[in-house]
Design a protein that fits this description.
Layout: H1 19-22, H2 25-30, E1 36-43, E2 46-54, E3 68-76, H3 85-100, E4 106-112, H4 116-124, E5 128-134, E6 142-148
Parallel strand pairs: 3-4
Antiparallel strand pairs: 1-2, 2-3, 4-6, 5-6
């Protein structure tokens, strides 16, 4: 997503109880472009969400390698939640991301232990728990999950 098109996603909002897990669109847009790529989640040709891909995830998360990506701040508008759109978008990552990041082996994320809905979405989308817990989450401990992206990582 071109950051000059910020007005397209400006109206996307989470429920207040979800902000501690993903933050706001404004916070996502403020992240440095040198590290984070923003991607829109589209529904009927209109943006209903966004997520960040952290190209330098391994620098802050030692369980990832230099050839891995990080999924950060998935924000799906509250008006379309619970309808399967988040799961569908996350399932598409396995084919969407390799075209953009051909050298990436896997996509990692951390998800708060107190966010069972998000954990279920990621599981349904094909992410697997590594078995480890990331204790340093801003909102508490988090599961570490990954999704293979390359043919050699599958």
């Amino acid at each position: 997503m071109n950051r000059n098109e910020a007005n397209r996603v400006a109206g996307i909002t989470l429920r207040p109880d979800q902000l501690k897990f993903a933050g706001t669109v404004e916070e996502a847009l403020a992240e440095p472009a040198e590290r984070f790529d923003l991607h829109q989640i589209m529904l009927n040709q209109r943006p209903v969400g966004l997520f960040k891909i952290d190209r330098f995830y391994w620098q802050d998360y030692p369980f990832a390698s230099q050839n891995d990506l990080g999924l950060r701040a998935v924000i799906l508008d509250h008006s379309v939640q619970g309808q399967g759109h988040g799961t569908a978008a996350m399932r598409e990552l396995r084919t969407y991301l390799p075209a953009l990041y051909p050298k990436a082996n896997a996509l990692f994320l951390t998800v708060n232990l107190e966010n069972p809905v998000a954990v279920a979405v990621y599981r349904r989308a094909g992410f697997e728990e590594t078995g480890d817990i990331w204790p340093h989450g801003e909102a508490g401990p988090q599961y570490i999950m990954s999704l293979p992206l390359s043919a050699t990582a599958v």
